TrEMBL record:
Keyword Hydrolase: yes
Sequence ranges assigned to domain RNase III in this UniProt record: 35-149
The protein's name: Ribonuclease 3
Main EC class the enzyme belongs to: hydrolase
Chain sites annotated for binding Mg(2+): E67, N135, E138
Quaternary structure annotation from Swiss-Prot or TrEMBL: Homodimer.
Function in brief: Digests double-stranded RNA. Involved in the processing of primary rRNA transcript to yield the immediate precursors to the large and small rRNAs (23S and 16S). Processes some mRNAs, and tRNAs when they are encoded in the rRNA operon. Processes pre-crRNA and tracrRNA of type II CRISPR loci if present in the organism.
EC number: 3.1.26.3
First-listed, main subcellular location of the protein, grouped into a coarse class: cytoplasm
Co-factor requirement: Mg(2+)
SMART domains cross-referenced by the UniProt entry: DSRM (SM00358), RIBOc (SM00535)
Pfam short name (any one): dsrm
Amino acid sequence: MQFGGFISRIFLLQKKNKNTPRVQSPLEMKLSVILGVPITQIEWYKEAFSLRNSGKKSRAKNYERLEFLGDSILGSIISCYLYEHYPRENEGFLTQMKSKIVNRKNLNKVGEDLQLTRLIINQNANALGENIHGNLLEALIGAIYLDKGYDMCKSIVLTKLLPPETIATLEHKIISYKGLLLEWSQKHKHILQYETQEEILPNSKINSFKAFVLIDGEKVANATDSSKKKAEEKAAQRAFYGLNKKIKIDERTPNPSVR
């Protein structure tokens, strides 16, 4: 074969390979469906869905750094969205709305609805914590930002992950009953207190906490949960609905009922 013919065959082979579409991995295909765009740098997403190994000395990449980045990017995107779409609302409303959107409970729900834990690469690396869905969502946003840039990341977040209709449903959602009770008690000059005690359960290694809500020294509600914080929040929720049913302390709930 002449040298010129050999070079021509190499050129044709390279051209053919260039035009042949690259075979996507299962992770790429799943992410493309979720995000609505093709993946460019899959390595970022592999990191976003890698759990931390249990070994203390392990330096393998995991989602935690991308979670940190995604948290900041998401905060920026949501802040800009709220500023643009609620031009007549004050700083207090915007701050509360942002808290409702980026709080852990809401992000966990979004991540769970997207079934992000199914994308985890090393399922047996570590036990899944209660906030894993929200953590993975933030890591995913960090990966999108690094892969696509800020503008495309913003577009994906507001069309696929947290669209306007989802954000709108949070306008009247209460995220902290303790905060709501405190605001009401301060406004109407009531003394709000919590009494919380740890309870030792028989034949159990896990203790529970029982919290009481006191208004002007009178116990109005109580609840038990696995931590002091959860018990007080649950008790505050019960107190809120109980008081709201009697004396209408919040106009946003026309037909309250004790939960």
